[in-house]
Every structure is written in C-alpha cells, then in structure tokens.
Amino acid sequence: MKNDVVTTDVVIVGGGLAGLAAACYLARGGASVQLYEKSARLGGRRRPRPLMAII
Ligand SMILES: Cc1cc2nc3c(=O)[nH]c(=O)nc-3n(C[C@H](O)[C@H](O)[C@H](O)COP(=O)(O)OP(=O)(O)OC[C@H]3O[C@@H](n4cnc5c(N)ncnc54)[C@H](O)[C@@H]3O)c2cc1C
After folding, report:
1. Minimum-distance ligand 1 atom for the alpha carbon of 36
2. InterPro entries, from UniProt (predicted)?
C-alpha cells in the first residue's frame, strides 16, 4: 500500500453543522483544512424544510 502523506493544519471528520462551521472559521483564520464526510451530502442531520411545513 502506498503511503500518502497528508499535509494540512486541521482534519475535520464530519460535514455536519459543527464540522462546516469549524472548517469555515479555521479557513478564514488562514489554516489549511481537510474535511471528510461519509455521506453523499453536507449538512449532517439538518434538513431544510419548506416554511409552511413549520408554521
Ligand atoms: C434525528 C434528528 C433530526 C434532526 N432534524 C433536524 C432538522 O430537520 N432541521 C434542523 O435544523 N435540525 C435538525 N436536527 C438538529 C441538527 O441535526 C443538529 O443541531 C445539528 O445537525 C448537529 O450538527 P453536528 O455537526 O454536531 O452533527 P451532525 O449533523 O450529526 O453531523 C455529523 C456529520 O458527521 C458525519 N460523520 C459521522 N461519522 C463520520 C465518519 N466516520 N467519517 C466521515 N463523516 C462522518 C455524518 O455523516 C454527519 O454528516 C435534528 C437532530 C436529530 C437528532
């Protein structure tokens, strides 16, 4: 197996709200960030809903 060396300041596991927010703030602060998400979409358990379904 090939040994790939990852050079990044921060690795974030999970692209839910917490992971996305952390990645955003870290990148804004100048850090290099790699984010890994296991599912096909970002956002985690949060799902957008039509406004009328909430009211
Ligand atoms: C059942 C449930 C339903 C909810 N529905 C809503 C909603 O409809 N609307 C709303 O606004 N809020 C909703 N919430 C609240 C909302 O989910 C949370 O406030 C918010 O999503 C938490 O964000 P988080 O990043 O901490 O975790 P999560 O949203 O759980 O994100 C974690 C992420 O990490 C990923 N992950 C986990 N393990 C790995 C791994 N080994 N490798 C790579 N990626 C990994 C997951 O796939 C996921 O994307 C719900 C909460 C629950 C428990």
Report:
1. 43
2. FAD/NAD-bd_sf (IPR036188), Zeta_carotene_desat/Oxidored (IPR050464)
pLDDT in tens, 13-29: 999 999 999 999 999 99
pTM of the model: 0.83
Q: 15 in ligand 1 pocket by Cβ < 6 Å?
A: yes
Q: Is the CB of 41 under 6 A from ligand 1?
A: no
Strands 10-13 and 33-36: parallel
Mutational test site, ligand 1, from 46, 49, 51, max ligand atoms within 8 Å of CB? 46
- Domain containing 3 equals 1-46
CA distance 38 to 9: 21
- Written as one letter, the residue type at 37 is E
